[in-house]
Design goal:
alpha+beta, Glutaredoxin, Thioredoxin_domain, 188 residues, Thioredoxin family protein, AhpC/TSA
Length: 188
């Protein structure tokens, strides 16, 4: 089911986490924080929206490193109901796409809830002080690429790296809804 992220809550402070990664490590916010900005992304393996843009996400994250911006991707879907998003498949996905950032699993879904993540992909662009400055889309593409689409996320993060401020005008990201675990029935 398609969902759309919410508008940017400028100045909201990034929430710390400690999650296992596909590379065998464990990462927190301090481990991935960039000198000029930090990009926290919620993605997954099976979402057609993510599949359509993953190569451009990789390109933009590589290019952002030159601007002092580092990135991390977090997968928060219920892997019991969506086994394509399981940890072994995450490892394969990371390898296949040569992800230049840690790919973490949020099994408890607590990090996604703390960030109020809505969809995959969902982008949270923070300045050097870990204050939210971007909650928009990668570009105009959805499941079909838009030729020569403006690099909205990249441009916003370069601006944030240089000025600490994100653009006032942002278009929310759209993608598959986060696959939340179903609540346990009462009495269990």
């Amino acid at each position: 089911m398609a969902a759309q992220s919410t508008i940017c809550d400028f100045g909201w402070k990034a929430v710390d986490f400690s999650l296992p990664a596909t590379d065998g490590g464990r990462y927190g916010l301090a481990d991935i924080r960039g000198a000029n900005g930090t990009l926290v992304m919620f993605i997954c393996n099976h979402c057609p929206y993510v599949k359509a843009v993953i190569d451009r996400i990789v390109r933009d994250c590589r290019d952002l490193e030159a601007h002092g911006v580092r990135a991390v991707a977090i997968m928060s879907n219920d892997t019991e109901r969506y086994p394509d998003d399981g940890f072994d498949n995450m490892k394969r996905f990371a390898e296949r796409h040569a992800l230049p950032f840690p790919y973490l699993i949020d099994e408890s879904q607590q990090v996604a809830r703390a960030y109020d993540a809505v969809c995959t992909p969902d982008f949270f662009g923070f300045n050097a002080d870990l204050e939210l400055q971007y909650r928009g889309r990668l570009d105009a593409s959805k499941v079909q690429p838009v030729p020569n689409a403006r690099r909205e996320l990249f441009d916003a993060m370069v601006r944030i790296a240089g000025t600490g401020q994100g653009p006032a005008e942002q278009i929310p990201s759209m993608g598959c809804s986060i696959k939340w675990r179903q609540a346990e029935p009462a009495g269990r």
